[in-house]
Write a structure and sequence with these properties.
There is one protein chain. By secondary structure, the chain is an alpha/beta fold. It has a domain at about 10-110 and about 175-265: 4-Layer Sandwich (Metallo-beta-lactamase, Chain A). It contains nine helices and twelve strands. It has helices at about 10-15, 60-70, 90, 105-145, 150-170, 240-250, 270-290, 295-300, 310-330, and strands spanning about 25-30, 35, 45-50, 50-55, 80-85, 100-105, 180, 185-190, 190-195, 210, 215-220, 255-260. The strands form two sheets. A seven-stranded mixed β-sheet has the order 1-2-3-4-5-6-7. It has a five-stranded mixed β-sheet with strand order 8-9-10-11-12, with no helix packed on it. Strand 4, helix 2 (about 60-70) and strand 5 (about 80-85) form a beta-alpha-beta unit. Helix 1 packs across helix 4 and helix 8 (about 295-300) runs antiparallel to helix 9 (about 310-330). The chain is globular. The relative contact order is 0.12.
Length: about 325
């Protein structure tokens, strides 16, 4: 079984800096429900008389602190629960800020944090980032000697890498203390919050969080709104079931859909995500049925109607590989 070895560097960096906006924005969705976007995966929190339920915790301890500041703009209530939608670092690495919270996730997410996230963080901290910082320093010194007009940009890149290393050195991964298999109901301050799992999708542990009284659902990375999604084959993804999940959720009583990344929307963003996955599967299946190799499929596959979406150039080839392997059942 061939592994996604060539993805390791990209994935390690993904967990430290997703490339998404780092400025945090507080958004009021309903009287009691708020979202905080930017700085990694979209977070949401429900305020009740008994305390707060928070969904995801941003990319790093420093961004977790900023997330807490946004929450404190609304309320000083205790954060009772912190729900991880899945194991990716841009959703869980701010958790150490919320020490009092009970952390909840799907059991597969806890397993993925232990087996995938923690080893990646260790390699990023001890090898990948130090090597990148050394290379960036050499580049700065070379540009200084050359009086290169790109010096300022190189210095900014070096500074960014050093900040990432400082963040990861201060990082403490907190494992969930409460795991969910299929469905779990939390009652807090007279409100019911339903956590449910519908099988493999973006990963093998995607937990959706439904607020019936608010007619709102947080989808985690099962939805990237107007952004090409990341299909985590190593983390147990299934685009076939992912589409089914999106179609099933669309039948629910919903007014607001919170994606893992991108703007908050309504049910239409569920359909758009499903359309991309269907088009991708159709395109890759064409080559699989013809017996085309993985390498040639990556070269030939394209879905022009989605080329204008953010992240197409960065993620499309990896998504083609994930679907090719899924269809070929090669893990």
């Amino acid at each position: 079984m061939r592994k996604f070895s060539y993805l390791l560097l990209i994935l390690c960096l993904f967990f430290i800096n997703t490339g998404f906006p780092q400025e945090l924005t507080l958004k009021k969705l309903t009287e009691n429900l708020f979202a905080v976007t930017g700085g990694g995966g979209n977070c949401a929190f429900l305020v009740t008389d008994e305390g707060i339920l928070l969904i995801d915790s941003k990319t790093s301890p420093s961004l977790g602190e900023n997330l807490l500041k946004r929450i404190r703009e609304v309320t000083d209530k205790e954060i009772k629960y912190l729900v991880f939608t899945h194991y990716h670092g841009d959703h869980i690495q701010g958790a150490q800020v919320f020490k009092e919270a009970v952390i909840v996730s799907h059991s597969n997410t806890k397993n993925n944090i232990e087996k995938i996230t923690i080893p990646r963080i260790s390699e990023t901290k001890t090898k990948i980032l130090p090597e990148q910082i050394k290379s960036a320093k050499d580049k700065v010194e070379r540009f200084k000697a050359e009086n290169n007009p790109e010096l300022k940009k190189a210095e900014e890149e070096l500074s960014s890498l050093e900040r990432r290393l400082k963040d990861i050195e201060n990082l403490i991964i907190h494992l969930p203390s409460l795991t969910v298999e299929n469905r779990y109901s939390i009652k807090l301050g007279g409100k019911e919050i339903l956590l449910f799992y519908s099988g493999r999708g973006h990963t093998d542990g995607d937990l959706m969080v439904y607020f019936p009284s608010e007619k709102t659902i947080h989808m985690g990375d099962l939805v990237f709104n107007n952004i090409i999604p990341y299909i985590d084959f190593q983390g147990g993804s299934s685009t076939e079931n992912w589409i089914k999940i999106l179609e099933d959720v669309e039948k629910m009583e919903l007014e607001i859909v919170i994606p893992g990344h991108g703007e908050i929307g309504d049910k239409s963003i569920l359909r758009k995500q499903a359309e991309y996955l269907k088009a991708l599967r159709k395109e890759v299946k064409k080559y699989v049925d013809e017996g085309v190799s993985l390498e040639e499929t990556i070269k030939k596959a394209e879905i022009p109607e989605f080329k204008g979406m953010e992240g197409y150039n960065q993620r499309f080839s990896r998504n083609v590989e994930a679907v090719w392997r899924e269809l070929k059942e090669v893990r």
